[in-house]
Amino acid sequence: MIKLMGHLANFASFSKQGEFLCTQSLFYLLKDADAKTVFSSFLEGVIGSSISRKLLWRTEHRQSDGCRPDIEGYHENGISVIKIEAKLDAKFGKRQLKSYMSELLIQNIPCCLIALIPQNRRKEAIDYISSQFSFQGEGPWQVQNTSVAVITWEEVFQIFETVKNQEFSADLVQLCSLYRVLNGDDMEPLTTDEEVLLWREKERWWEKLIDLTTRKLTSPVEKILPMSTEKTAEPYCRRYICRNINEVESCYSVGTRDPFQNYRTPIWLRFHKRTGYFAEISEQLIQSSYGLKVVRSGKHIWYPLEVPQNASREVMINSLVMQVKDIISVAYRFHA
């Protein structure tokens, strides 16, 4: 059953602050003495070195370079020894982690840099951090006095469940509910046509469905590209999925936008006019049964994707995946 915070997370006006709210909720939970103890013990197990139980915690504390880690563990003298960057589906900022690392390396005492991410982004986070610092393996890693590690929200929730405090447990349930909806673990099904027509009221729900679907469409050996929104007259929030054909990159995107005339779905697959082999892709699709559904706009090719109603999360995702794969199998038939 989705709790109040989870229900609110479906609405765009609330979910736009979702990552911030989850981080602030974690900080609030760390005010509990037992929670601080189990969290410190957990981090000790991750990095393999001791962490003071007297650490204090703060959020959004500005560094000397102006950057602000989401959560910091610090001593009474103000020296930060733990910096945590928490993510849901946002990408890491340029030089964000390197900035935090530079601040920690100044200290002459053991420190740690932590990336807190959803379980389904663990590999993505490890790959990103490895590329930033030239690390090998899955971590934890060591740079002079600083340990670096990736942990997941799911792991944190699990260790917090050991805290035997009724009020704390109630707060934890609300945070977990908020997180599960924002992360796409709990997705209420579509039940009416009206929900589709009023899709922007729950824009976050649709974007998370795109996120989960495109992750499944991306090959395990390929890098998962970031989702971003094209700031055009009709904003298009999408993720690209690419392949290499004879040393030429050819891509398509799946995303949300206001429907084209005579359509109601906000989910659209697009072949950009500048993608590799666009002429060949266009020819294959126009000559097939999919030619009847082609929408041409901005010289791009667009296809509507439908979400089944009264369906579970997995059924919705699998339906979108199959629709995309059917289109792609025809589009790239020239390379078969």
Describe the structure.
A hairpin with a 2-residue loop joins strand 5 and strand 6 (about 145-150). The protein folds into 2 domains: about 5-160, no CATH class; about 195-335. Helix 3 packs antiparallel against helix 8. It has helices spanning about 5-10, 10-15, 20-30, 35-45, 95-105, 120-135, 155-160, 165-180, 195, 205-215, 280-285, 315-330, and strands at about 55-60, 70-75, 80-85, 110-115, 140-145, 145-150, 230, 235-245, 250-255, 265-270, 295, 300-305. It is about 40% helix and about 20% strand. By secondary structure, it is of the alpha+beta class. It has 12 helices and 12 strands.
Overall strand count: 12
The figure for the number of domains is 2
Which whole number gives the mean pLDDT?
Answer: 90
Low-confidence stretches: none
- What's the N-to-C terminus distance? 46 Å
If strands are numbered along the chain, what order do they take across the biggest sheet?
A: 1-2-3-4-6-5
Biggest β-sheet description: 6 strands, mixed
Strand content: 15-25%
Structural class: alpha+beta
- What count of helical segments does DSSP give? 12
- Percent in helix: 25-40%
How is this structure best summarized?
By secondary structure, the protein is α+β, with helices and mostly antiparallel strands. The protein has 12 helices and 12 strands. The chain folds into 2 domains: 4-158, no CATH class; 193-335.
